[in-house]
Amino acid sequence: MKLIEDSILGHLDDVNSVKVSPDGIYLVTASGTKYSGVSSKNRVEIWYMDNGRLVCSLSGHKEPVISVDISPDGNYIASGSWDHTIKVWQLKTGKLLDTLKGHTNNVVSVTFSPDGKYIISGSWDNTIKIWDLSSAKQVRSLEGHDLYVLSVAVSPDGKYIASGSHDKQIKIWNFETGANIRTIIGHENSINSVTFTPDGKYIISGSSDDTIKIWKLETGKLVRTLKGHSMDVNSVICPSRGKYIISGSNDNTFILWKFKTGKIVHIFKAHKDNVTSVAASSNGRYVISGSEDKLVKIWNAKRFMKKIKKQRRIELEEEKISELKREIKIELDDSSKRYDGITFEKLCSKLNRSSREIRYIIKDMIFKRELNGRLMGNTIIFKKDRKLVSPKISEIREKKVIKKFDEQITEWICLYCGAPINREDVEILLNDEVVECKYCGLTLT
Q1: How far is CA 341 from the centre of its chain?
Q2: Contact 329, 42 (CB under 8 A)
Q3: What is the pLDDT of residues 55-95, one digit of tens each?
Q4: Considering the entire predicted model, what is its pTM?
């Protein structure tokens, strides 16, 4: 696949759930049309990630398949259906191993425990059930929600289960005892998706109130509300590194958010119908979206992030000067002058004419802190985005490199956060490549 964006065709029904195998080789999808009177194939399908070819199609459910998950060892698939059952399949052969019966209404969410020994299911019968994979027997049933359970997740350490419900509540359960530890209230509508962050410290929830909320697991307190979708949020994930949140919605988009700030990185206008499910490969290279337009789309996240960062630099040029304003104090021997962030070209011109040692102090007007540094030599260039120190002497108007230098400079810092840039990264910059500041995440060029 050429993966800026690729579509997997072949689904005859709505795509309700997508998952990637831990080794990144397989993509598993669940499908079935959820409207009465409409014929539906109700399949679980296995695809090769690298070329989009269908490996096999698994039939057995009698109603739409709403949820799939893959065991941590990559050997098994669990599928939950409106036929009130969970089925367990062997991934590599597609063989049906077991059918788990016990729910009395639609099963809409299934997940494996981190050790792969258990399957946890959520149902419209208002319960969460824990099943032993090896024996195919029910271990425990968790009751407490007043309405449909729509989503279940297990903490990375396997100690807790989180459940989201049509009753607008998130409940935290002790995995071992089944005790309800905490009930979290804050959404104004159904909670369609819950997930844990990779470090297990936070729960992320997506709701029909069009928002995503981040909660602290230990206290149940709300950390942040993310607003950007215009319709129900159906799916939320926090990929393995925990830097981003990805959400899919009935507004036909999925959104990439920065976890630390809650800011939107990019809105993907991905589909022509509801985005029902989002997933990511374990290495973070691919993002997958499934939709009721009967398509699965695979995105090359690494390549797309490069485009986003490039676009971000362009957007920084266009932001209001009040948001980026900096005060620069340049000391030349006994004289000193102050410059505003908007006058950088004049500043560079003056510095180029100077033959004296330059000391500079940058005061960040947003964060109210001083960023100190010292350059030996007679030239320093600030790029037009007013946030980066350039590793080369450039003529700004023509964007022409006149001379590269590195030995005259004993220390490099990121102008935005003041953090030091190590020698290895400086070498990369001097070779006209980009690096990311290890402290604030800004792209340096």
Answers
A1: 33
A2: no
A3: 999 999 999 999 999 999 999 999 999 999 999 999 999 99
A4: 0.70
Residue 331: its pLDDT value, please?
38
Length of the chain: 445
- Asked whether the CA dihedral 101, 103, 106, 112 is positive or negative, the reply is negative
Q: How far apart, in whole angstroms, are the C-alpha atoms of residue 22 and residue 75?
A: 10
- 3-state secondary structure labels for all residues of 99-160: EEECCCCCEEEEEECCCCCEEEEEECCCEEEEEECCCCEEEEEEECCCCCEEEEEECCCCCE
Residue written as tokens 């080369």?
392
What gap in Å lies between CA 433 and CA 423, rounded to an integer? 14
Reported as a pLDDT band with limits 50, 70 and 90, residue 194 is: very high
> How far apart are alpha carbons 296 and 27 in whole angstroms?
10
Alpha-carbon distances of 32 from 42, 66, 276, 313, rounded to whole Å: 4, 7, 12, 42
Phi and psi torsions of 105, nearest 5°? -150, -175
- The mean per-residue pLDDT over the stretch 175-195 comes to 98
Determine the Cα–Cα distance for residues 92 and 241; give it in Å rounded to an integer: 27
Percentages helix, strand, coil for the chain (3-state, rounded to 5) are 10, 45, 45
Using only C-alpha atoms, what is the Rg of the chain?
A: 26
The rounded distance, in Å, linking the Cα atoms of 76 and 88 is: 7
* DSSP secondary structure, 308-324, as one string: HHHHHHHHHHHS-HHHH
Helices (H), 217-320: 301-318
| Location of structure tokens 């398509």 | 295
- Two tokens, residue 180: 């309800």
| Rounded-to-integer distance, Cα 232 and Cα 212, Å | 10
pLDDT digits (tens, 9 = 90+) for 4-54: 355 565 567 899 999 999 999 999 999 998 776 666 789 999 999 988 889
Structural domains in the chain plus CATH codes: 7-299 (2.130.10.10), 310-382 (1.10.10.10), 407-444 (no CATH)
Residue 26 to residues 248, 314, 347, Cα–Cα distance (Å): 21, 37, 55
Consecutive H or E run containing 348: helix 344-353
